[in-house]
Amino acid sequence: MKLFLSMSGPECCQNPPAPSSGGESGDLLQIASLNSYVSGNPDSKVAVILISDVYGYGAPKLRQLADKVAAAGYYVLVPDFFYGDPLTPGTNIEDWLKNHAPEQAVDFAKRVIQALKEKGVTKIGAAGFCWGAKVVVELAKDAEIQFAALLHPSFVTLDDIKGVKIPIGILGAEIDKRSPPELVKEFEAALVANEVNNFVKIYPGVAHGWTVRYKDEDAAEVKCAEEAHQDLVDWFGKCRH
Fold first, then answer.
1. Which helix (H) or strand (E) holds 150?
2. Dihedral of the alpha carbons of 94, 100, 103, 105, in degrees to the nearest 10
3. Neighbouring residues of 220: CB distance < 8 A, sequence distance ≥ 6
4. d(Cα 216, Cα 38) in Å, to the nearest integer?
5. How do residues 56-80 score in pLDDT, each as one tens digit?
6. CA 179, 197, 62, 105 torsion: positive or negative?
7. Which option is the CATH number for 23-240: 3.30.70.1170, 3.30.70.3460, 3.40.50.1820, 3.40.50.620?
8. What is the DSSP letter of 208?
9. CA 148 from centroid of its chain's CA atoms
């Protein structure tokens, strides 16, 4: 737990999402006892789980990204791994993390994966954002999923990356104390050394969390987020076959 507390900080909490104003095309369902936002063709044999940052599954930009991924032919789920208790402005993140350590969510995610398999899904990928990246890397180490992506990861260590055996993408920000570019480069070197299929990219001029917390009024940030979204879809496209 000390690892988590030392690696959390103001960056994780900047630019919290506004409440959803609609514009999403998915539905809300219960999957493995978790409230989940789902988008895309439920009969698809390939599913993608998006695991949120500390602000939870209700963040509008995360749900909109789920719709983008779903449009590429996936059944996409965004589960509520916080059981209705996401971080809210004014909450102390260190206190919140004591009840929401990423490892605790790994078992929840495994239940979602099992539910997908039971409905006939044959290939499952996952993308994790900030906090969610730690959950995804644990699933990747256990080969619970077939392909993965980490976006501006928090809590992920070099030893975690060395344990990954499945194709994995890492999308990092130039301005990021949680996963600075130097660490992302170490991640890439470890994947190459272990001959793991990978996609690693550092996006210039953006900060931790930008892919799902970009400011609509910042044209450069929006453009970079859209580039990352397309890179994510393209990466999954290479991994699904």
1. strand 147-151
2. -160
3. 205
4. 24
5. 999 999 999 999 999 999 999 999 9
6. negative
7. 3.40.50.1820
8. T
9. 9
